[in-house]
């Protein structure tokens, strides 16, 4: 019976025969998935596993030929994938925090009434702002825009 090829040999062969990389995926994807599922949750782990192996495939020419086992290399890629995912999630949360949620939560009637009132008062407000000095107007507008 023949011994299975080492990860190193599979990666080396995949440089000329890309389909050889599938054996590496078959060998380690379940373990990498479990690692990612514990860190990110099972909903995200499947995509993160795919991203990990896609990155590994693209960078397989950088694999150190000194090791027969690719798991430390794959875990390193998976860990970077976790970091990228968490940074993307943080950016998404910050963007959502900047959204004006009043338009999504206020009933249409309240929004319409508020807009009518704002239009009615707009002319009066413009007249009042016109009577302020440039410095006072800039200060007032700066404060109003910050809140």
TrEMBL record:
<keyword id="KW-0731">Sigma factor</keyword>
<dbReference type="GO" id="GO:0006352">
    <property type="term" value="P:DNA-templated transcription initiation"/>
</dbReference>
<feature type="domain" description="RNA polymerase sigma-70 region 2">
    <location>
        <begin position="24"/>
        <end position="92"/>
    </location>
</feature>
<dbReference type="Pfam" id="PF04542">
    <property type="entry name" value="Sigma70_r2"/>
</dbReference>
<keyword id="KW-0805">Transcription regulation</keyword>
<protein>
    <recommendedName>
        <fullName>RNA polymerase sigma-70 region 2 domain-containing protein</fullName>
    </recommendedName>
</protein>
<dbReference type="GO" id="GO:0016987">
    <property type="term" value="F:sigma factor activity"/>
</dbReference>
<dbReference type="InterPro" id="IPR013325">
    <property type="entry name" value="RNA_pol_sigma_r2"/>
</dbReference>
<dbReference type="InterPro" id="IPR039425">
    <property type="entry name" value="RNA_pol_sigma-70-like"/>
</dbReference>
<dbReference type="InterPro" id="IPR007627">
    <property type="entry name" value="RNA_pol_sigma70_r2"/>
</dbReference>
<keyword id="KW-0804">Transcription</keyword>
């Amino acid at each position: 019976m023949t011994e299975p090829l080492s990860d190193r040999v599979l990666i080396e062969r995949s440089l000329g025969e890309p389909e050889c990389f599938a054996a590496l995926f078959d060998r380690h994807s379940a373990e990498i998935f479990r690692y990612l599922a514990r860190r990110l949750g099972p909903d995200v782990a499947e995509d993160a596993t795919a991203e990990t192996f896609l990155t590994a495939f693209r960078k397989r020419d950088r694999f150190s030929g000194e090791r027969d086992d690719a798991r430390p290399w794959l875990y390193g890629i998976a860990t970077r994938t976790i970091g990228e995912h968490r940074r993307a999630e943080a950016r998404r949360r910050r963007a959502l925090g900047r959204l004006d949620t009043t338009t999504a939560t206020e009933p249409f009637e309240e929004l319409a009434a508020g807009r009518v009132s704002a239009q009615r008062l707009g002319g009066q407000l413009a007249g009042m702002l016109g009577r302020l000095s440039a410095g006072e107007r800039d200060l007032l507008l700066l404060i109003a825009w910050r809140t």
